[in-house]
Amino acid sequence: MTTIDATHEGHFPSAVVAFAASWLVVALFTFISLTTVFDHREVIGFGLAALSASIVIFVAVVTVLAQRTFVVGRADRRLTVAAWIAIPLGIVVVPMSEVWEMCAMSVAISSTLVRGRWAPAVVGGVFLAATIVIVDVDRAEPLQAFGITLFGIATTVVLIALTELARALDALRASREQIARLLVDAERHRISRDLHDVIGRTLVTAQLRNQAAIQMFENQPEKAREQLGHVHDVLNSGQADLRRITSGPILDDFMSELATVDAMCARLGIECVTSVESPSGSTVERVFAAIVRESSTNMLKHAHPRRCTVRLSVEQGHDALEFTNDGVTREKSDPGAGTGIAALTRQVEDLGGRFTAGRTAAGTEFRVAATIPRAEEEL
Fold it and tell me: Which residues have CB under 8 Å from 221's CB, separation 6+?
């Protein structure tokens, strides 16, 4: 038995977590700013206080919308214009009612809007403008201006970091889906290549034998009959090869598939634990390899796994395979109802075995299990 325990720390959560953390910070600073405006309403006047409160709310809303839409690449022209308007407003409102938190939001919006080589210049320029305004407002109290500037730097770093984290997590989600699609495309390419080789070889051989039979039909009927018998054998062999191709991979063995899954999990930061005994025969090994391939593909398409487990053991005269992964979150999609699972069910049942696939009782794990009786000579 070989046991592989590949533990990979740093599994990333969903981008929603980063968005939620950022929006919580924005909500907190918006509340503090509105409280500050309310406290200054008698000093600055109710009209200016109402204007300041409107600007605070506008900048906060634009910050939230910009983070979500620009990160996922769905922003429209109106939001872009609103974001560029919100940047100076977040700075202008500071001398009106001393809501320093809005400067950090302005810088965060600029970091969301501009990407590439111009980003440092634009973000740095907005931050410099915000700092100049803060220092100018508190020029009579240099220590306070210094403290507020440090607070602004910290707040800006937090907001930008959370935005970039959300962007990275969204890119990671897209890459996971791309990997799943590439695995499916690779399997389709393999099947296409094998079909081309098998069918092409079979048809060419049968055609040559058939032509020889036609030429011998009148003068050498016995040899013509022999050639036709060869044609029958070639077609039977091609049909068997075709059945093997459509029922599962004929090139990759179980351990190769297992190594592929382990390497894929290593790249994606998924903990992969395997405990494997050798299957009883090539047919069982081929079916189990197909189950591992289909299960790992479904895991990437329908879940956000932190851990997957592959076990192959001998239990009471049966080869038993189990593939389990956690992180099942898509309630509307059922990876146990696809054509791949149906094909695997038929393959296992053709060998006298039993195949099951579905969520566990907890609902957050998906389990694929297959048991196939061992041949008598293997017992």
Answer: none
Residue 341 contacts residue 357 (beta carbons within 8 Å): yes
Rounded Cα distance between 137 and 302, Å, is 54
Contact 114, 67 (CB under 8 A): no
5 pLDDT band, cuts 50/70/90, is very low
Residue with tokens 């390419």: 189
In the chain, the amino acid numbered 310 is V
Question: What local confidence, expressed as pLDDT, does residue 303 receive?
Answer: 81
pLDDT per position as a tens digit, 8-48 = 334 455 667 777 787 888 888 889 888 888 888 887 888 88
Contacts of 351 (CB under 8 A, 6+ apart): 283, 284, 287, 372, 373
- Quote the tokens at residue 299: 């895991």
- Model confidence, pTM: 0.45
Spatial contact of 332 and 297, defined as CB atoms under 8 Å apart: no
State how beta strands 354-359 and 318-325 pair.
Answer: unpaired
- Tally of CA atoms within 13 A in the half-sphere of 328 that contains its CB: 24
